[in-house]
Design goal:
GO terms for molecular function: phosphorelay response regulator activity; transcription cis-regulatory region binding. By secondary structure, the chain is α/β, with parallel strands linked by helices. The chain has two domains: about 120 residues, Response regulator (Rossmann fold), CATH 3.40.50.2300; about 100 residues, Winged helix-like DNA-binding domain superfamily/Winged helix DNA-binding domain (Arc Repressor Mutant, subunit A). The chain is built from eight helices and eleven strands. It has a five-stranded parallel beta sheet with strand order 2-1-3-4-5, with helices on both faces. Strand 10 and strand 11 form a beta hairpin. Helix 1 packs across helix 5, helix 6 crosses helix 7 and helix 6 packs across helix 8. The protein is elongated, with a radius of gyration of 21 Å.
Length: about 230
């Protein structure tokens, strides 16, 4: 899970940003000053930074950040109430990768942060495997011991997500957010139905699963094949 650090001194704005990024499946650490956030930046995958902060301004902090060899490549989205072109250019020239003018929509915030994360991460592998299960993401092709599985697109996406994150338990709510998207209006029962359908495709016994395991009270996970035998 990608880790996003947020530095915003306005409490209401900070909590709104945190809420929507967490709802999009990201891990968020939120702070009101640059000093409070300093110790978390080494583990961050992206930074959402307010321009106007008490003490050290966001712009000054960004310039200092770009001089740090360990953090100079950290993707930064700057939040600003300054709409003038010259000020936006100043932020970008100081090292911001993108900017968002207040007030902003939750959808645009999430989209811009995700875009930063995609640009900063290495290309994701297009081939997944877990024992006899193999998946070609580009071709939307899944095979079990060489036999093609006839999956719907949503079944394929769910199986790919769990295979990519084999060993990790996801709640039904997390799976809805990560696979169906935050705007999906259906209930958590949808996840159960798709898991049941995938088990049928995989020939998986829920009582003794080779692949898709129910973790009581928590959710579902893909069993890593190394756990077999």
């Amino acid at each position: 899970m990608s880790h996003v650090v947020v530095i915003e001194d306005e409490g209401t704005v900070r909590e709104v940003v945190r809420f929507h990024l967490e709802r999009a499946g990201l891990r968020v650490s939120a702070f009101d000053t640059t000093g409070a956030a300093q110790g978390t930046l080494s583990s961050a995958d992206a930074l959402v930074l307010d321009w106007m902060l008490p003490g050290e301004s966001g712009l000054g902090f960004l310039r200092r950040l770009r001089g740090d060899p360990e953090l100079r490549r950290l993707p930064v989205l700057m939040l600003t109430a300054r709409a003038a072109e010259a000020e936006r250019v100043e932020g970008l020239e100081s090292g911001a990768d993108d900017y968002l003018t207040k007030p902003f929509s939750a959808a645009e915030l999430v989209a811009r942060v995700r875009a930063l994360l995609r640009r900063s991460l290495p290309d994701a592998p297009q081939q997944l495997s877990n024992g006899p299960l193999g998946m070609d993401l580009a071709a939307a092709d899944a095979r079990l011991s060489g036999t093609r599985l006839n999956l719907t697109r949503r079944e394929f996406d769910l199986l790919a997500f769990l295979t990519r994150n084999a060993g990790r338990v996801y709640s039904r709510g997390e799976l809805l957010d990560r696979v169906w998207g935050a705007d999906f209006l259906g209930g958590e029962r949808t996840v159960d139905q798709h898991i049941t359908q995938l088990r049928a495709h995989l020939g998986d016994d829920p009582a003794r699963p080779r692949f898709l395991e129910t973790v009581r009270g928590k959710g579902y996970r893909m069993r890593p094949w190394t756990e077999e035998g």
